[in-house]
């Protein structure tokens, strides 16, 4: 399967809100009355029980109505800071391995482009809806949106979804570091960020709603929704890569496994390999009309599990564990 890399220069702009009234008058502007909170690197607005970056809200609001899913779409859905960059790299490399063969590994797109730019986000950040229409099938797409903000055709058409989440304490610490790194203005202290996270107010949060929506979908459509955790890729990358290839309907052949192609995918997409590339050390992109600078290096901080202990108190850890237990009770989902 071939996926055309996204031209980020053209598609990164978030400057043009679409199809929503630009009136500032609250009576005429439905967005202006939505709850908005400061605290993270940019304000968040609550829409459909999901906290979204206010400057991207109008783009995300269009997805449910305007995104035209196709039955053979593959959607990489992730809660932020759960390893999206890693999953995009792995899935892109797996599905395109006959096109970008490992014989010419020095020409592989991952060597010159950040993985985030190789798989477009639905409706934003390089994946504007008109652009997605131009992609050949089967499309490899990504989203941080909760399932409830995607069109129901994603379910009814049987689109395949790979969902990736992460142990919430680690996801929170990764979020906190990332937000402070990309913010050009004031930084958020840990306690403030923690309170907001536990209240469900973080980009694409509440995190528990996000996890639960895709978890339930994976129980209802087990053949079409693969539910993954960051921790299992860290502990068994080769197994996940093989399972992922099967799920994506491009399993490794015995001959490929003999040649170690699956291991090469793991190696090429590893934290060590990607974080040492010039593009990921020195590249980056401006967002939010220049208010944020996302240096690609900020997508490669540590790449470890359990780092929360180095930043959060025992009490904070226990509080978040209790919240997680409470929110996921009865669902079968555990951390
Ligand atoms: P996003 O939410 O902005 O899309 P995402 O890639 O999901 O970013 O999250 C970044 C986290 O994934 C970082 O975790 P950390 O802060 O705990 O270090 C980053 O290090 C980790 N990550 C990115 N690429 C890899 C990789 N190849 N292997 C392992 N972890 C990775």
Describe this structure in words.
By secondary structure, this protein is α/β, with parallel strands linked by helices. It contains 15 helices and nine strands. Mean pLDDT is 90; it is low at 1-25. Bound molecules: 3'-phosphate-adenosine-5'-diphosphate.
Summarize the model shown.
This protein is of the alpha/beta class. It has helices spanning 8-11, 57-66, 84-95, 129-133, 153-156, 168-182, 190-198, 207-220, 230-235, 237-247, 254-259, 261-268, 271-275, 278-282, 314-328, and strands spanning 36-37, 44-47, 50-53, 74-78, 140-143, 160-165, 225-229, 284-287, 292-295.
- Helix percentage: 25-40%
The SS-based structural class is alpha/beta
- The CATH class is identified as Alpha Beta
How would you characterize the largest beta sheet? 4 strands, parallel
Cα(first) to Cα(last) distance is: 35 Å
Number of DSSP helical runs: 15
* DSSP summary, beta strand count: 9
Q: Which strands sit side by side, in order, in the main sheet? A: 5-4-6-7
Number of domains: 1
Taking all Cα atoms into account, the compactness measure Rg is 19 Å
- Order of secondary-structure elements: HEEEHEHHEHEHHHEHHHHHHEEH
Question: What would the average pLDDT be, to the nearest integer?
Answer: 90
**Beta content:** 5-15%
**In the CATH classification, which architecture applies?**
3-Layer(aba) Sandwich
The unreliable regions are 1-25
CATH H-level superfamily title: P-loop containing nucleotide triphosphate hydrolases
Q: What is the CATH third-level topology name?
A: Rossmann fold
Bound molecules: 3'-phosphate-adenosine-5'-diphosphate
Shape: globular
Enzyme class: transferase
Family: Belongs to the sulfotransferase 1 family.
Domain Sulfotransferase: 72-332
Organism: Oryza punctata
């Amino acid at each position: 399967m071939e996926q055309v890399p996204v031209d980020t220069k053209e598609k990164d702009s978030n400057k043009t809100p679409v199809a929503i009234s630009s009136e500032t008058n609250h009576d005429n502007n439905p967005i202006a009355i939505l709850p908005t909170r400061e605290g993270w690197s940019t304000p968040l607005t609550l829409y459909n029980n999901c906290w979204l970056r206010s400057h991207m809200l109008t783009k995300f609001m269009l997805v449910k109505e305007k995104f035209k899913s196709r039955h053979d779409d593959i959607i990489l859905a992730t809660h932020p800071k759960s390893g999206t960059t890693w999953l995009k790299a792995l899935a892109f490399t797996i599905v395109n391995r006959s096109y970008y063969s490992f014989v010419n590994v020095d020409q592989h797109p991952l060597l010159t482009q950040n993985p985030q730019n190789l798989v477009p986000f639905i409706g934003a950040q390089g994946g504007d809806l008109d652009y997605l229409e131009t992609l050949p099938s089967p499309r490899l797409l990504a989203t941080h949106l909760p399932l409830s903000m995607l069109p129901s055709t994603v379910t009814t058409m049987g689109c395949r979804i790979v969902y990736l989440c992460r142990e919430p304490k680690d996801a929170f610490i990764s979020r906190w570091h990332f937000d402070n790194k990309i913010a050009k203005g004031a930084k958020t202290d840990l306690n403030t960020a923690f309170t907001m996270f536990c209240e469900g107010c973080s980009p694409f949060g509440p995190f528990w709603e996000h996890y639960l929506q895709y978890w339930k979908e994976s129980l209802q459509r087990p053949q079409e929704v693969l539910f993954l955790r960051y921790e299992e890729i860290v502990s068994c990358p080769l197994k996940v890569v093989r399972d992922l290839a099967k799920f994506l309907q491009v399993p490794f052949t015995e001959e490929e496994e003999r040649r170690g192609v699956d291991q090469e995918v793991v190696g090429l997409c590893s934290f060590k390999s990607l974080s040492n590339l010039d593009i990921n050390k020195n590249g980056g992109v401006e967002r939010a009309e220049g208010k944020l600078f996302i240096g690609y290096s900020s997508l490669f901080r540590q790449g470890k599990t359990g780092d929360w202990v180095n930043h959060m108190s025992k009490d904070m850890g226990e509080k978040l564990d209790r919240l997680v237990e409470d929110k996921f009770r009865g669902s079968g989902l555990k951390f």
